[in-house]
Amino acid sequence: MFSFMAEQYEAYPYPYRNPEEETIGKTRTHLNDFPEIAHYRSGGLMTFDKDYRVLVAGGGTGDATVHLAQEMARYCPDAELVHLDLSSSSINVAKKRLEKIGLGGRVTFIQDSLLNLPQGKYGEFDHIDCSGVLHHQKDPLAGAKALRSVLKPNGMMSIMLYGLYGRLAVYEIQKIMKEIYKEGDSLDDLIRCVRQWIHAAPATHPFKQALMDVVEKDDNEIVDMFLHVQDRAYTVPDLYDLWDRSDLELVTLRPEIDYNVCARLPEGMLRDRILEMPLAKQQAYGEQLYSAHAIHLMYVRRKGETATPAPRPQDHDMIPYILPFGLEFRQQVISIGLVNLQPYNTQLDATHMAILSRIDNETPIKDILKSTAQALGKDKALIEEAWLTVYEEFRMRGFMVLHKFP
Ligand SMILES: C[S@@+](CC[C@H](N)C(=O)[O-])C[C@H]1O[C@@H](n2cnc3c(N)ncnc32)[C@H](O)[C@@H]1O
Known about the structure:
- This protein is an alpha/beta fold.
- The chain folds into three domains: 5-164 and 233-302, Vaccinia Virus protein VP39 (Rossmann fold, 3-Layer(aba) Sandwich), CATH 3.40.50.150; 167-226; 319-403, no CATH class.
- Helix content is 44%, strand content 15%.
- The chain has helices at residues 5-11, 34-41, 63-75, 88-100, 140-149, 168-180, 187-200, 208-215, 219-226, 236-245, 261-264, 269-275, 279-290, 324-336, 350-358, 365-376, 380-396; strands at 53-57, 80-85, 107-111, 125-131, 151-162, 248-254, 295-302, 319-322, 340-341, 346-347, 400-403.
- The chain has a seven-stranded mixed β-sheet with strand order 3-2-1-4-5-7-6, with helices on both faces. Strands 8-11 form a two-stranded antiparallel ribbon.
- α3 (63-75) links the parallel β1 (53-57) and β2 (80-85).
- It is globular.
- 40% of the residues are buried.
- The chain binds S-adenosylmethionine.
- Residues 5, 9, 14-15, 58-60, 63-64, 84-87, 90, 113-115, 131-133, 136-137, 224 line the site of S-adenosylmethionine.
């Protein structure tokens, strides 16, 4: 096994990516679409100028960097994007992917530790992506504080950290592999052992399907998940504690529906009692009830900043934006005819479908509602009500945001 993390990512860059296969639009990452960043950072106003600076901390083989470079080419072509990682082999893969799509010149690559950010060598940033990195630090709090030290006022961070409840089986396997390991064993031997263990698990194993999905991927995935030198996972209270101690705070956990305990409970005493509790406690219960978060996705900002209010669907100058991960869901709702959305039992009808089919990520709400009303010959108030339902259902699932250009 590896003794140091840097050694691991040098040998097994993560995630495994073939630069030859990169094409424009192929790679999408969570929380890095500019309309979504604008929704949560600036009330939906798309104000990304040439001074805007973005850091991908622990960028690995470049998924977020590839995505962000394309967003920046579109919304702020003169702004700066920095990809920082400890691993030179990961950086090389990221570089080649960006070159393949003609965006190589847009990114500054730095081989260094994010723990050195407070030294000030690389300046400050408006947006920081740090996905799957802090939980691999010996001291994740030091990592979080290092990121905080270079986050500009009103800046935001896109963060992914492991979730405990969805990774219990992963930690069991990590422990078993450490127990069977003998000095001199090769990584190839251990990778084979992991595969054998998972294949041998019966179908009744509670995580069989999730484990099988991983085991069929590449060796880099097996190493990162089951043979990692160093990782830990978080519950919702752990997240609140981490951010609090690093002088940061949560903007939102995504998708909100997966942390919304009350959405899953019927009306009555249990629900009422939980509703009286602070949001953090409700989300902690939400996580326990949902019970399968293997990752937590979230936006984070500096503590104590006055938050810009989220854009409102009643502001008809806003443009609804369906995020890439929501396009398939929209397609299912429209063409397969999903009409009863859980867990709210929301009934969708032809009016909802007509609104949804008019959202093209460019047309403002007012034009969508007007053309729907004309096409269906329906009253404006009914169309407005249907729009609010569509928006809430998609927003809660992390599939829709609102934005506009200044
Ligand atoms: C699990 S990978 C995630 C890569 C990428 N963020 C993604 O989501 O695809 C973790 C990456 O963080 C890098 N890393 C870990 N600790 C770091 C540190 N202290 N400073 C910079 N990079 C680090 C590793 O080299 C590795 O490339």
